[in-house]
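Input record (one chain):
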Amino acid sequence: MKPVNCFAALICGTAIAAALAFTGSGCATKKFVRRTVSPIEQKLSQLERNTSEHASSIEELDKGVSRADERALSADQRASAASQEATRAREQAALAGKSADEARSVADRGLTRAGEVGQTLGARIDRLDNYQLVSTESVQFGSGRSDPNAEAKEALDGIAQKVASLKRYVIEVRGFTDPTGPREHNLELSRKRAAAVVRYLTINQKIPLHRIHLMGCGSDSPVADNSTREGRRQNRRVEIRTLAAIPSDGEIASAGRASGP
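The corresponding structure, as predicted from the sequence alone:
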């Protein structure tokens, strides 16, 4: 039995006992009992309704508190996840900063190396400025031919003998043609003639390839009149220019000391 019902039964019993005591006979009429008990029962019924409503309100309040707890827990979880993401972001930023520092270090080393190479190249260029022309010779080729004939080979052998006594030298090889035929064809033919000369000097005369520079010039820069057969023959040529380094003051002094008085 619910506490409210027990309380109602107790009130009703008390009211009946009071009615009996009031009549003094222990035997009250039904009408009197109804008038006495009915108001009490109505009040008790209202009390039960109010108690039930309060219980419902408390239950809804409990549900609201539970939902609030769930939302608070979810918010804590999101905050924890956000904190973890922030930690990962900081770690990635630190790694990115480290990579950037390494990249800057590599770039600095590259710039330093480039500066050193630039200085070396500058020194080499300065030395190249001290080269002077030693000789210029030409060998002729047949019309449409790119292989040197016996006369051309004899001239190339003489050039090789001259450079053998040089310590620092370079050889420029430039090929030419007469204007007969298309320009592109003549340009390619002039390259082949220059390449044939270089091949002969390096293979037959053992001249180091790094000392030779070649270029095909086509029919440009003729040395004779192309309107004549002899002029065209002279223009079908390869020019070989030999340049040697001018000895520095230190080298001259060293050579003087070595030769003695």
